[in-house]
Task: structure prediction
Amino acid sequence: MPWVQIRLRTKKEFSDALDDLLLEQGAVSISYADAEDNPVLEPAPGETPIWPELIISALFDTEVDTDSILHTLEASGLPHSDLSIEALPDQDWERAWMDDFKPMRFGERLWICPSWLEPPEPDAINLMLDPGLAFGTGTHPTTALCLEWLDAHPPQDALVIDYGCGSGILAVAALKLGARHCWGVDIDPQALEATQANAEKNGIPSAHLSIAEPDDLPPVEADLLIANILSGPLVELAPAIKELVKPGGRLILSGILEGQAKNVLQAYAPWFNMQQPVLKDEWVRLEGQRI
Result:
C-alpha cells in the first residue's frame, strides 16, 4: 500500500518526545538517520546509540490528517526543523533496503559482499557480511583503512588479535587472508556473537577463531594486533595493548581523526616504532612495530 512520510530534523534530547508524539498521531513506523556526519563507532554494551542531530521519518497510511499532525507538532513546542511531507508509492521495502548495499573492494583482491548478492569476482577473497547492529561493515573509512592494509599485507600463518572486533570483519578478513588463528576481543557480548556468526557464515573453522572480553583474554603475544576503536580508549589502553604484541610484531590502529593522531602516536612510541599516519577522509591509520 502507498504511504505518507513525514520527515523532520531535531536534536537527540528531543527525539523520544517527538517519537511518542508521532506514534500517538498514528505513525505505523519510526526510523532515525544521522543528520550530519557523526558516525557512532563503538556504543557501550546495551546502549542504543543516537546521533546528536538526527532525521526522524514517520510513516502513516494515506488516510491520515496531515494538517492535524502539523498543528500538533507546532503546539507541542518540541524543537524541530526541515519538516517535509511526501507521498511514497507502494514497494518492496525489504528489497529497497537491500538495494542500498553493494559489494565493495578493498585493495587488490579483498571484497565485502552482502550475502544476497553473488561476488563480482568469485576467485577473489570474498567476505560475505550483512549489515547489522555491531559496527563494521566496511563502509566507514576507519574500517576501509584496516581492510586495505590487510589486503596489502596478508597475515600468512600469523596469530592475530582484532581488539574491538565489532562485527568481526577484520578478524574474518585476516583469517581469509591466511592467519592461522585470530582472537576477537570486545567489551560488548553482542559484538562477540556477531563475530562468531560472521566467521561461521564465511566458512571459518571454529578452531581458528576465539572470542573474549578484554578481562577474559588469556596471555597471548600476537604477530599482529588491529584495534579499530576510538582515540581515547587507544591512548588509555596503550600499556595493555603493548603486552599483547610480541617483539617484532605489528600494530595497526584506526578510529582516529587526523587531529588526534599525535596523541596516539606519543602513547605508543615507548614500545613501538611508529610510522607516519595514513589519511582517508579525515581519519587516519597508524602502523607500528614492537621494539
